[in-house]
Amino acid sequence: MTGESTRSSVEARGVSKAFGGVAALDAVDFEVRWSEVHALVGENGAGKTTLCNILAGIYRADAGQVIVDGAERDFRSPAHAIDAGIGMVHQHFRLVEPMTVAENIHLGWPETPGVVSQRALNERTEQFMVEMGLRVDPTAKIWQLSVGEQQRVEILRVLARGARVLILDEPTAVLTAKEAEELFAVVRDLAAGGLSVIFITHKLREVLAVSDRLTVLRHGIREITRPTEGATASEIARLMTGEERVLNVEHRVVTGDPALELRGVSALNDRGITALHDVDLTVRSGEILGIAGVSGNGQTELAEVICALRGLESGAITVDGADITSMSVRAVTDIGVGHIPEDRIGMGMVLSAPVKDNAVLHSYWTEQFSQGLNLNRQSVIDFAKKLVETARVQTRSVFATAGQLSGGNQQRLVARREALAADRLLVAAHPTRGLDVNAAQEVRSTILDKRDSGCAVLLISDDLDEVLLMSDRIAVIYEGRIMGVFEAAEADREHIGLLMGGHSITEAVA
Amino acid sequence: MTPLASIASAVLSVTPWRLERRLEVDAKRAALTRIGGAVGAMVVVGILLLLTGRNAFLIFWQALDAIFGRQRGIEGVALRAIPILMTALGVALSLRMKVWNIGSDGQFLMGALAAVGVGIHMDGPGWLVLILMAAAATLAGAAWILVPALARAYWDVNEIITTLLLNFVALQLVTWSALGFWRDKAAAVIQSTREVPFTLPGIPGANSVTIALLVPLAIAAVLWWVFRSTSIGYEIDIIGGNPRAAGFAGIAVRRRILIVMLFTGAIAGLGGMLQLSAPGAQAMNAGFSAQFGLSGFIVAALAGAAFWGVIGGGLFIASMFYAGIVLQTKGLSVYIIFAIYGVILTGIALGEIAARYRVVRRDAADESGATAGESAAAPQGAGS
Fold it and tell me: Residue A94 and which of A372, A382, B14, B191 are 20 to 30 A apart at CA?
């Protein structure tokens, strides 16, 4: 790897930070060198982002020192940090969507000329991109760009302001696998050019793929800093979680009547383009059918047609033999179909509403809560309290708004709520996306419990490891078509990978 | 951050304190900071009046005496409050769903116009005609928002423009009725419609206030109950919070939007009939609505769409307007009075913002930890 230099670029010494009396960081030492990619690893809540926010001047440490290039610094704002050459790219982009790439890069940059033509702006941007070896069309509007390209603009923006230490906060959380690969290459190039890159992640594969050294944080304490070379995923996982937790999943071969059946289902996506082509699928009671595929190949539409959120162009869907093709959302829910939606925040919850209202979003009309017009407040509160407890959602109270929950807790809430609503069928779309190891295991256990209790589960995930781990049978989807269905025992990773990439079965076998 | 909060935060940046956003605003604090804002604004008004050489204490005394010193004052406030409360309740209902009905003035006028039409053309027992007038006004108010509501619900057309523009159409129709088809030909000078020969029964002991005052109170009570205890209120709040989640929960979002918007129009329309059925106000002219819709909108927005807050806020603004009129008769210029209105409303708006922030010492936020602030909460920020 490239990390020859051993001079440190930025260093935290004994940094502590508490929020509301809870220690987020406890005397953490952290040192990053020039020309290295340093992975900062830990579960949700381990303190990774807090540490980087201190380095980037967003928070101030309660105790400890921040040393940049050999000099102690006390940042009072992100502007101070960027002056010292430390820039951070946040998980949620801060770009102006209707404006061009060039405009976004120049926005609020002291070096932007006071009066400048669009052309000069584009040329300046172009030139800067060549210097940095990072390309995006300067004239494109942000909203026209893919997420990966938008992230590149964010990186360019930070670099343009003279950042020599680049902090990337979970940069791959929003990227497709291919975009992530491209990002890794960019990150490696930047480090090769002499910069420091701090790469926050909880995905072990990424740590091994991209970093020169790694630091593991757990509960605000540094567990280890070591060269990545020679480290193994299981070792890092153990340090992250404090214990080695491996979910043992017993795959089954289930026979019997199908719970869910799709026959020749075709459907359009939001842009009116056919997203599902003549899909045939069967899920039996007590089995998990995993849908393997790269995001954007019709998985979203598949979940939505089953849950009556999207209409069919042709075909039929049955649950326990009953035709649900033209049923309403509510009717489908009433026969026992639960749905952990892909977009938890955008679709699965109301952030401005209290936790208790979110807890009954998919069941408030049932007899348990509603008698005629009356919505029984007390039973809603009781139910929400129980849900929060069993799902181990950390919240001050069920009256706090859902927006106050952390991402992992929001996800636990939705997953458990939908598992309870699902008597016959659970459609789980990317149920562990963005979760740390422990939280992901919990959600997976919830899904497995559902299966063991006789519920049919359709598991959609773009994480092939997850599909292989969880599924009793695996269907591969590509461009809205089912490329093949396999029993877990006969599933071959490479073969499935080829099908996910659009190679037909015969090619794959050959 | 709102612009005002940004300014406050910039001012504080040179001090050892800073602003911190509260995650949750409890209703009591929200009410107290609004009242504090109003009181603070009145202190500012008093100082300005003193600086311009006026006896501020006398003016405040005159205003309070005018309102609370005599029955006429209290009744005057109540009469002004009724139309403001009705439009405000309609707007507050729509705000729960994040729909902005700016057209309550128009719905109010059309309700009154429909009531005039029934009142001057029907014979029969007074109570029956009044009930029919109320029904006609309710339907007319709903009808006046029907097109914006359909456009919003089914074609996602922004309701702010459509409802606002229909106000002007309604005003022209009223003017036409007063000058043209329903003109009172007996009164040659005043251009107004004929007079409706019925009024609502008075409240016992009152000279001019009728049972119309009970209507906004009853509506507020019903709305409060709907949002507290029914699945309909729950659904409306869910739609207001996240329409996609509402669709996910199987709520017929478009139909709900249509129905709720019709209700907001209906409430404003009924307000028009109530205004018309007060003694001495039984005919319409172009000045029939003294921008009640606008006042109602301000009340609903400042009350944060809380229905009892709307009642309190509506009564307060009606008192303010009434005091303003009395002070004009005592020789205070109308411009000064309008300026005072502005300062007081700004004070309440600042109070509304103040409820959402707190001032903390820099870097001391961590020790306090009692109420969740921006840093204390940061579940996503501090999370990973």
Answer: B14
